[in-house]
Amino acid sequence: MELLQTLKIIADDTRFKIIQLLLVNDFCVGALARNLGISEAAVSQHIQILRKGGFLKGEKRGYWTHYSVERSLLIHLAEGLEELANQPTAQQFVCLRESLKNIKSKGGENKMCQCKCEHPEKLQGKPGDCSKELKKECHGEEAHSCEKKVEQIEE
User: Which pTM was predicted?
Assistant: First the structure.
């Protein structure tokens, strides 16, 4: 299962509380409902989502099913988050406009300009916030393409 889908499943407060309770002890739906202060029907709906996501397993004990957490999935999730956190950062500064140039708007045109900043660390926010000297240092003598679009809209 994809990391984002897994995180979405446990992002719900009630489902997260169910996992916390079941990490300590196996419970049936009725016991979970009492502990959480919600209806058994609500608990059953959350358990169904958690089971489909692979977080819970059920064991029939007499008339009731007691649930427990699939700890291996939590470990896998933690490893995925650790891998995400340990990704190396870029060694050089990357212009936001350049990195996003392939993101298309609904009309099919690029949302961002395709300029390349020589010194993006010196820029301050959007192009209009920078002094002329900073823009010149970053973009050279050319007018910034984003500014041209803004000027055209304002006219």
Answer: 0.58
